[in-house]
Amino acid sequence: MEQTTFPAQYKSDQPVRWCPGCGDHAILNSLHKAMATLGVAPHQTAVISGIGCSSRLPYYMNTYGFHTIHGRGAAVATGVKLANPELTVWQISGDGDGLAIGGNHFIHAVRRNIDINILLLNNKIYGLTKGQYSPTSARGFVSKSSPYGTVEDPFIPAELVFGARGNFFARSIDVELAVTQECLVAAGSHKGTAVTEILQNCVIYNNGIHSPITDRQYRPDRTIHLVDGEKMLFGKDKEKGIVQDGFYLKAVTLGEDGYTIDDVLVHDSHTPSNFLHQQLAMMDGTDLPLAIGVIRDVTTPTYNDALEEQIREVRAAKGFDSLRSMILAGDTWTVK
Amino acid sequence: MLPDTSVKTLDKVVVRFSGDSGDGMQLVGNIFTNVSAGLGNEVSTFPDYPAEIRAPQGSLGGVSGFQVSVGRGVHTPGDRADVLVAMNPAALKQNVRHLKDGGVAIVDVDSMTESDLRKALFTTDDPYKELGLRAQVVEVPITSMTRATLADSGLDAKAINKCRNFFALGLICWLFDRPMDAVERFLKKKFGKKPAIFDANMKVLTAGYNYGHNIHASVSTYRVESNDATPGVYTDINGNTATAWGLIMASEKSGRPLFLGSYPITPATDILHELAKRKDLGVKAVQMEDEIAGVCSAIGASFAGNLAVTSTSGPGLALKSEAIGLAVMAELPLVVIDVQRGGPSTGLPTKTEQTDLLHALYGRNGESPLAVVAPLSPTDCFDMAFEACRIAIEHMTPVILLTDAFIANGSSAWRIPEDNEYPAIRPPYLPQERIDAGGWRPYDRNEENLVRYWALPGTEGAAHRIGGLEKDCVTGAISTDPVNHEKMVMTRREKIERIADDILAQEVIEAGVPTDTLLVGWGGTYGHLRTAAAELTAQGIPVDLAQLRYISPLPSNMGEILSRYKRVIVAELNTGMLASYLQSRFPSAHIERINKVQGQPFLVEEVAEAVKSLLKD
Ligand code: SF4
């Protein structure tokens, strides 16, 4: 099909104000490209955000945009989608906005399966308020509000999504432009709540937090790009693979310990069971490589479709054409 | 014209207990009577025994009833009951004619079985419909809860069943604030020699009382009667239903689909219930995960072009405050319904107050003006809900509708309006010519009323970004410019003030003889204050009344009205919120106050007495 929309159409005329070198720049570019690929016209698109560095993003889009209040983006986006299901709705959030103050709205949006696309830009820090630990910061993390290290465990965004019974989860890294685009196109095509976590580098307050996994020299061995229908291979020369080992997943080197390519799992993001998807999503780049790409993409009924359908059914069954006709069908009496 | 209404059944309430002759209705009726008398109530009773002494259990002939009127000025057991307790279908059938329209029927839902319905000669499975019941039905699992309460009592099933009447009594005691210890004294007297039965009855009584507490059961013992009998088709509605229907009317008149984002809270939940049913009219009523999500989903729906509403009560209004500020800043239409209850904090969830006024007016960060309106009566909830929507849409602003538990639960006969009785609501859509001309900005305004245009997502050529950050008054881009900020603050304020040009002038209900005393009230106290003013006038103390429905902005003739009177007395169910608001607006007015903060409506008599004592000075 001929592409009728182009990335430039989705760019607004506002100067982008993120710090030079911030991972958000690359994500914004990937989003413009993904939207152009999806081909939904800018005026049919609404981009909603809460508060935080990442939440500035709607101002840089030439779509309908609403920069709301801290943590509430998912609730506002829910209202937008339900009010006008014709719109394609994107919600941009960060680890603080989406998982701390907005955690409740996040899990309930996922549970309801509202057809919105949530971008969760995870930099494991509060940037806008100048460097406090976030709900995704590792235990012991030292920040301005945790000078002696945190004494709490972080959320793993994927685990929350699965806990909330999510049916779409993808992950990328800010610098992996092609993978980010791939994830966002899949998210945009998915009917239902689609969560895409993007590991994003905050150069100012948390520079290099993802480096042990994402730096060029480590990336081949510590990440794996999952592609539907393809073997789960990683390493510089794709010499390593993921195999099933009892109840667990295991990383092996082909040709070692008797493992061959036949033992390596083939990715299937569409299988209804989320058992393997969860295990893949929980791989963290230590013993097992961190998974990027579309990890789970299963279609189930959306809240917005079910709502429209129920309204159609009830209207057809009752047949009222106005408030007055509904009231007159109840108990009334006449005064002459 | 303000409706000519009066409040009735102020000081007394009629309760009717009914059940099988073996259900002990006379006993609990007598206890309730005695406890009430002990509290200083006047009482009058009417035991209504079955005609047949040995009629079969559950049959129509075997129904026993006990009616009691308690309160002040009680001379008879009352014509019809405000509250009917029916322990089985036969009791419901036999006694429904003794229940007032709009009253409350408390029914043991466990007894509504197929066989009991047949014994009572019901022909369908829907006894309420079959009876044409015009009452609020409260279904309570009296039998099963009694059994559960006494499961470990060691009593046999028959003895346990005999305690059901005390569950009903406990619930009635909760509804009418009868203290448990007074009931306990009567039980001691009666069952003192049978400690097992005493204990069982006390337990069940307490369980019934706690049940009322847990489900926030409440009944309105007040009825606002319309004295105007315009020909037409009538129905009975309470304030919450009227509110819900007013919103639907506004949706029909504006062409904007209705969206409610809400979260259950007493005493506002019935608005959510009603609108959830109204999927049959295309309404989207969404129960969100919390109060904040309720208002935020509504703001999203408003951005997307719906008539967006959120409903709540005081604690929920507090939670929604930040989001309402966003709607102020983004200049989006939004209707926030606050069914006021006793506060602060959880306060008195089922009781009425007017203590959220200052919160509604000022309870947000920053300079955050919006419109506040308050209906006068259950039926006026329809009109003011409609008005709130009209103002919200036509002036692109959040509007807070302040009802209260009293009018929300209170019911009244209401003439169903004809379709042409309400005006069209005209959303300030962005005109196509402006889109075609190019250069449109999100904060371009109509110069007359300062309203910005509503460009609905999906419209080609009108894509724009809005948000909570201050915007440049011309370009609509983010701006921290100090002078621009002040200009935007003043513009938002002035936009609200100019709504005064678009609302009705304040009416004064005149005594008919010259007077220099003006009684001022607002919202749901109308029925009581109007009756009080009329009674005072009849006693030779003429008093005019101004009952406010529009509070922000005030009607433009408000200052002029206040200046006409030497004595201005503001009566309200708080410690003086409207009084201080008016005083700040009109510093030269001499404002006196009548206040009550008991979780109860005014009594006509106490207002009249308070006015008299002020006028003595
Ligand atoms: S503070 Fe960090 S996250 Fe925020 S814009 Fe700068 S680099 Fe990006």
Describe the structure.
- The complex is a heterodimer of chains A (336) and B (617).
- Helix content of chain A is 30%, strand content 20%.
- With 336 residues, chain A is an alpha/beta fold.
- Chain A folds into two domains: 1-209, 3-Layer(aba) Sandwich (Rossmann fold); 221-288, no CATH class.
- In chain A, the strands form three sheets. An eight-stranded mixed beta sheet of chain A has the order 2-1-3-4-8-7-13-9, with helices on both faces. In chain A, strands 10-11-12 form a three-stranded antiparallel beta sheet. A two-stranded antiparallel ribbon of chain A has the order 5-6.
- In chain A, strand 10 and strand 11 (240-245) form a beta hairpin.
- In chain A, helix 1 packs across helix 6 and helix 3 (95-101) crosses helix 4.
- In chain B, 54% of the residues are buried.
- Chain B starts with a strand and ends with a helix.
- Chain B has four domains: 5-214, Pyruvate-ferredoxin oxidoreductase, PFOR, domain III (Pyruvate-ferredoxin Oxidoreductase, domain 3, 3-Layer(aba) Sandwich); 232-421, Thiamin diphosphate (ThDP)-binding fold, Pyr/PP domains (Rossmann fold, 3-Layer(aba) Sandwich); 432-502, no CATH class; 517-616, Rossmann fold (3-Layer(aba) Sandwich), CATH 3.40.50.
- A seven-stranded mixed beta sheet of chain B has the order 11-10-12-13-15-14-20, with helices on both faces.
- Chains A and B meet through strand 2, helix 2, helix 4, helix 10 and helix 11 of A and strand 9, helix 10, helix 12, helix 13 and strand 17 of B.
- Bound molecules: iron/sulfur cluster.
- Iron/sulfur cluster binds at residues 18-19, 22, 24, 53, 123, 127, 202-205 of chain A.
